[in-house]
Amino acid sequence: MSQFEDKHLDFVLKHYQEGKFDTRKAISRFNEAHGIRPKPRRNVLVMMSGFAAAAAAAVLLGVFIFRNIEDSRWTEYETLAYAGSFTLPDGSEVALSPNSTLRYREDGKRMVKMSGKVFFDVARDETRPFEVRTDGAFVRVLGTEFQVNDGSQDGTETVRVYVSDGKVLFAKNGRSEGIVLTKDMGACLEKGGDMPVADAGQDINSIAWNRGSFIFDDTPLKEVLDCLSEYYKVSFAATDLDKRLSGEFYNDDLDLIISLIESALDVTIIKK
Q1: What are the distances in angstroms from CA 89 to CA 109, 162, 178, 185, 256?
Q2: 240-261 pLDDT per residue, tens
Q3: Could you give the CA distance from residue 131 to residue 115 in angstroms, rounded to a whole number?
Q4: CB-based contacts of 211: which residues, under 8 Å, 6+ apart?
Q5: CB pairs under 8 A, 24+ apart, for 79-83?
Q6: Cα 44 to chain center, whole Å?
Q7: d(C-alpha 246, C-alpha 257), whole Å
Q8: Region 162-179: what's the mean pLDDT?
Q9: Domains of the chain, with CATH numbers?
C-alpha cells in the first residue's frame, strides 16, 4: 500500500467509533484537509429541452440515445454503457442504469414504459397517479421514490420493485389487485406469476448504483461481502465472517472499500 493510502486509512480510522463507521464524513474531511477535489459520484444530470438539446447531450456525454417514436405521444431515452438522469415534464426525476430504456408520454398523462433498471423520484400529484409499465407488470404511485428492475439485464425476466420512500401499488399487467409496498420494502413478480410476493432480499443497497454508496448497519461481514460480490461481479474469501460492520462506503473504488473494512474489523479479505 502506498504512503498516501496509508495516510488516507489512518485518517479515516481515527473517525471510527464502535457501531458507527462513517466513511463518507471521514473521507470528505480527509479530502478537504489535503485539498483534494473528489471526482463526481453521479453522472451529470441531462436536462432534456427539445430534440436538438437532447441529441447534442447524447453525443457529447455518450449517456442517452434520444428517439422520436412514430406514435408522437411517446418519447424514448436509452442509456448505453453509463447511467444517466433527467427530469420528466411533470417534474419527476428518473435515473437509468446502464443499458436501460424509458418511454414517456408527451400528452400530459403520467405514464412511462421501461426496460432494464430505473430509479424514480416522482413529483407528487394527488389528481394524477404516476404509472410505470414493464412487459409483465405495472407500478402505480402518487408521489414517492422507488426502483423498478424488469430482470432483462440479468436474463431472469423477474420484475423487482424496491421502495425507498412513500408507498406504491405493484401488480401484474391486466390485474387490479396487487401488493402495496412502503418505505424499505421490496417485492418481486416471477415470469408467469399472478401476484407479486414480498422479497426480503432487497434492501437499501439495491439502489447503491444510483445513490453512489453502500450503507451497512450492524451487518455481518458475510452479508457485506455478498452484497459487494453481486454488485462488482467478483468473489471474496475472508476470515471472521461473523464480525459486523456499520457505515457508508462510496461505490466507485472497490479496493479502497476492502482496505477500509480490513482495517476497521481486523480481518483479511481475498478477492477471487
Answers
A1: 10, 24, 28, 28, 39
A2: 998 999 989 999 899 999 999 9
A3: 14
A4: none
A5: 79/116, 82/43, 83/42, 83/43, 83/209, 83/210
A6: 15
A7: 13
A8: 92
A9: 3-41+212-271 (3.55.50.30), 51-204 (2.60.120.1440)
pLDDT by residue (tens digit) across 91-143? Answer: 999 999 999 999 998 777 899 999 999 999 999 998 899 999 998 899 999 88
pLDDT value, residue 22: 53
Q: Which of 23, 4, 6 is nearest to 224 (CA)?
A: 23
> β-pairing, 111-115 with 130-133?
parallel
Q: How far apart are CA 194 and CA 197, in angstroms?
A: 10
Q: Any idea which residue has 413478480 for its cell?
A: 189
**Under 8 Å between Cβ of 134 and 164:** no
Please give the C-alpha separations between residue 92 and each of 57, 85, 108, 120, 178, in angstroms, as whole numbers: 19, 11, 13, 7, 24
Q: Say how far apart CA 126 and CA 262 lie, in whole Å.
A: 49
Q: Residue 49 pLDDT more than 60? A: no
Burial of residue 63 (CB within 10 Å: 0-12, 13-18, 19+) is buried
Q: Please, what is the Cα angle at 136 between 75 and 114, to 5 degrees?
A: 25
Radius of gyration of the chain (CA): 20
Go through the chain and tell me how many residues it has.
Answer: 272
